[in-house]
Amino acid sequence: MSASRVQIKQEAGFGALKGRGTGLNPANRFEAARRDAFDDGWDQAEEAVRPQTSLIRDATRSIIARNDSPDLSFETSINPYRGCEHGCIYCFARPSHAYLGLSAGLEFETNILFKPDAPKLLEKELSRPGYKPNVIVLGSNTDPYQPVERTLGLTRAILEVLERFNNPVAIVTKSALVLRDADILGRMAAKGLAKVHLSVTTLDADLARAMEPRAASPARRLAAIAGLVQAGIPAAVMASPMIPGLNDMELERILEAAAAAGAGSAYSIMLRLPHELGELFTEWLNKFLPERAGHVLSLIRQARAGALNDAQFHSRFQGSGPYAQLLRQRFSAAVKRLGLDEASSRLDISQFSVPGRALPSQQMSLF
Fold it and tell me: I need a surface site. Which of 89, 214, 268, 322 has the fewest CB within 10 A?
């Protein structure tokens, strides 16, 4: 049954705040003491002051993150922000706030660390003699175009640096704000240096509002794909995460809508619920979709070897078992039918150059 046929309960109450993914702050896994929320029956959530977003300066001294995961198709990435105001209840990045001594719950959405020195640090790292050119992914953990980007502009400043160095970039976002930077991305794309991945989890506006309270609506994300393509920027759709029994029945429709908007490639991963996220997502299901919570959790366990999460390489993104296999087959068939082939827009690392520094061929010509 489609999620759009189910009435999503969105009344204020225990564990829910309007405009936020969750009102809970479960203890993170590094704390000795545990904080448990308690409902005293008075249900005063409507009277509670809405928590404001706090911006915290991140004094990091490096900006490019590197990984050697066999599950990822990239090695280098940049995240201008830690935490994300979009408030997506399923976000696998939520537990990373534990490393900051913060909760994966409401604190992940309201305590946003930003990296004001990111552009300078990036220019320094790209200028190093030992730097090996590679595609840099923006938004591998948290969204580079979350609401605070409108005022801070860190993502745009990073793109300006990457353009000067001709360093290719791939962006992952669920925000239409990416169109603001179509000028930079368009110039880079003309050289084969830029690509944008738009995450579309559902076409149901009500479900999206409940799951992703401060992200762009599905219609705006599809419009962003169309706008990017019109500007000459390759766009891909990420039908992710697929949540068994909740949005996975929309998989083909999402891919069809994205293809109609001009997307040239597609990706999809299964829902992941690491660490504190399992508790948060379970609470959210019981709050917004109580009549389906048990069924959804059962299907997740069927695709995760009996658990809510699987951290093993090679299976953590795709799941395992018959249910996950069927989902992979459906995705592959739809991609083939719709011509969503990722090989059509590979990015070029051969054009990288440090501004003001002569290329080896130019240096030889001096002798």
Answer: 322
